[in-house]
Every structure is written in C-alpha cells, then in structure tokens.
Specification:
mainly beta, 5-stranded mixed sheet, 4-stranded antiparallel sheet, globular
C-alpha cells in the first residue's frame, strides 16, 4: 500500500503543503444563540429536502444550569425559492423533567421522518424518539423509549456516537457496565426493540472485558447483513464485530487491535462503505492521526493504514462517506492558532491522496466537529466556536 499526500500551493503545515481549492468556499448558515441552543458537540444529518437536523447541549428554554438551559434539538431549513436565509426551528427544548438534558450526540433518522437520540445527562441517560407533529399541530412529539440504570446496561454519560436504526430495532453503545476498565466500566453494545404493544425493551448484546476487545466503545456502525462494527479505545484500542448467531445469540470477533506509535491507537469514528469496507480514524503518537481501512477476504480481515492525516500536529476527529468513493472528515484544531479544517481522501488504485478542502482560519468560525454530504454534493457541518462564539452551522460548496 502506498501513501501519498497531495501537495497544493499554500502554507506548509507539519510537512504537508495544503490550501483550499479555488472552487471551495465555506459560509456560515446560522449562528447559534441562547434560544436556538448553542455549543454543539457533534455533527448533523440532512434529509432529501436539504433540511439539516442537529443537537445543542446548552441553551433553550429549560432551567438546568444557571442561564445555560438544558439543550435543544433543531431543524435548519434551506431558503425557499428566491430566498437567501436559512430558517431554524427548535423542535424540542429539554427540561430535565424525566426527558434528560445536555444532548451532545447527533440524532438518527427513524420511521416516518422521526428522530432517535439521547441526552447525556439526567439520570444515567435516556433514549428518545421525536416524532413529527400530528395532523393540525406544529409540535413535535417527544417520547422516552428507555432509561439506563447504570447496572449491567451501563450508561450514556460519556457517549457521543449516533444510534443505528435498521427499520426494526435501535443499536448503540454504552459506557459503564459490569466489567471494569481502570476506574470505570468497559462498556457494552445494546439493542432497543419495540414490542407489538409499543413498549421498547433493552437487551445487552455484548459486554466488553478490557482484554483484546479493548473496552470503552466510541463508535458503532451496522452492516446490511446485521453485523455491528464497534471501535473501542481502552488500552490502545480495537475494532470488533458483534454478529447475530441465531436464536437470539450474538458472537464477538476482534477484527484488529492497535499497538500505538506509528501503528495508531484509540480508534474513533468508523464508516462503512457500500462494498463492505470499514474505514476509521485513529490517533498517532501525539503527532496527528491516521485513516485506516479494514477489508475482508475469505473470512479474514486485514487492516491497512491508508493515510497519515496531520495538520498542525492534529489528527481527524470525524470521517464520513463522500462522493464517488471518497472520504471526507474534519480536524478540530485548537482555541488559539489553528481553527481546524475539512479534508478529503481520494483513491487511485491502492494509492490514497489527502487534500485540504477548507481551513477555518479563513472563517466563518472555528473548531469543526463533523461534516456530511448533502444536496447538490455540498458539505454541511457544525462549528463549536471554541472560546470565541456560541457555535454555528456551515456549508462548504
């Protein structure tokens, strides 16, 4: 496998010459404030109409902490024909009245345009469904599906990964749990499934041990065959498969472990390509990060580190599928000198190239958290704002 960094004209950063390409430009679509919620911790999702959905852990009209609110779920709608401004609707204001608060994870699309998600605070975490308004109403309908107990089911206090919905059940990862990894639990993989009566039942599919499986899960994706792929960060980290084995049983297989140093450690965001290839990010010895791929041949999984991604010594914090088999991601940056960027990975045979699409030192805000491909191939994401703003939503086109 070859590693190639595409050199563009521009400033030199960590030995990598990068700059924004001429046809790309980032614009701010909406600046968050108290009423809309503010200080996002995760990225967004978009629907076929171009509406952007996301969460803010602070703000709104709740009364959880002094003047900070309890957080919100929002929808940001594109301009109507001939218009120029995006419109934000707060779909739900958390109140910490059994509904939880501080929603830091992104939402997931469910049936009939509903949204699934979970707030991190309030008890040990709750999973909710937010359904579209009933006929004749403008109010989205919030329902708690399950409240974690911090027993064998663990908790959601330190989880920012989105849930996975397969049309019949929800899948996710939890912190805590029965086994110990250092001073905290090793975490688990769970399923939430509705019954005919409409009640949802939680089942722990696998509890991590802190051995070769790593422990402390941070990311989960589901394949079309029903397998769940999970990245864990305890020790140097691992990627594991949790697969259905029939009669309600699930099996765990370690696909790869990390050794630290140039091999990488503490894998993060996983992405599943249409051909079944798994891509992910990992740290690299404090000098940036790597993007790796996992491929399966005759039942054997092989990991290849396909690219070093390092900008001002920072590595990627998110990764997503782009257009035409490419990968897109963000580097968060810091609060002082480097405001973060959006990058793209493209392949030619076995060679991958890394290109910076936008450096947020040029605005509109700082510290990106994630990016997705939306309508027209444009990229959309959130900016935390660091210590200089309340955060915003951006478009890269």
């Amino acid at each position: 496998m070859k590693f190639t960094i595409l050199a563009l004209s521009g400033a030199l950063t960590m030995g990598l010459a990068v700059s924004a390409t001429a046809h790309e430009h980032a614009i701010g679509l909406y600046d968050f404030a108290q009423q809309s919620g503010y200080g996002p911790w995760s990225g967004v999702i978009t629907d076929a109409h171009g509406t952007i959905f996301g969460t803010n852990p602070n703000g709104g009209n709740g009364s959880c902490t002094a003047d900070a609110g309890c957080g919100t779920i929002y929808a940001l709608k594109p301009p109507k024909s001939g218009g120029s401004s995006w419109t934000l609707d707060v779909l739900y204001d958390f109140q910490d009245q059994g509904d939880g608060w501080f929603p830091e994870a992104p939402v997931t699309f469910g049936p009939h345009g509903s949204l699934f998600g979970y707030p991190a605070a309030g008890s040990y975490g709750t999973v909710f469904q937010l359904r579209r308004p009933a006929k004749g109403s403008n109010t989205w309908r919030y329902r708690v599906l399950y409240t974690f107990t911090n027993g064998a089911d663990g908790n959601l206090l330190y989880v920012i990964a989105p849930l996975a919905w397969d049309g019949q059940a929800l899948y996710g990862i939890a912190s805590g749990g029965a086994n110990a990894c250092g001073q905290s639990g090793c975490g688990s993989v769970f399923r939430l499934k509705p019954s005919r009566s409409g009640n949802w039942t939680e089942k722990t599919l696998y509890s991590f041990t802190g051995g070769t499986d790593g422990g402390v899960p941070v990311s989960i994706v589901r394949s079309g065959s029903g397998s769940l792929y999970v990245a864990t960060e305890y020790g140097n980290g691992a990627v594991v498969e949790i697969a259905p084995a029939g009669k309600g049983m699930w099996t765990e297989t370690v696909l790869t472990t990390f050794n630290g140093g140039n091999d990488g450690n503490n894998p993060g965001n996983l992405v599943l390509a249409t051909d079944g290839t798994i891509y992910g990010t990992a740290n690299k010895n404090g000098t940036g990060g790597i993007v790796f791929q996992l491929t399966q041949t005759n039942g054997t999984w092989t990991r290849t580190n396909i690219a070093d991604v390092s900008f001002h010594r920072y590595g990627p914090v998110s990764l997503a599928n782009g257009l035409n088999g490419s990968l897109i991601g963000v580097v968060e940056g810091d609060f002082d000198f480097f405001a973060g960027n959006v990058f793209q990975l493209t392949s030619s045979g076995s060679t991958w190239s890394v290109k910076q699409l936008w450096n947020f030192n040029h605005g509109p805000d700082r510290n990106p958290l994630g990016v997705v491909t939306g309508r027209g191939g444009h990229l959309y994401g959130t900016l935390n704002g660091g210590d200089s703003s309340s955060g915003s939503v951006f478009e890269l086109k």
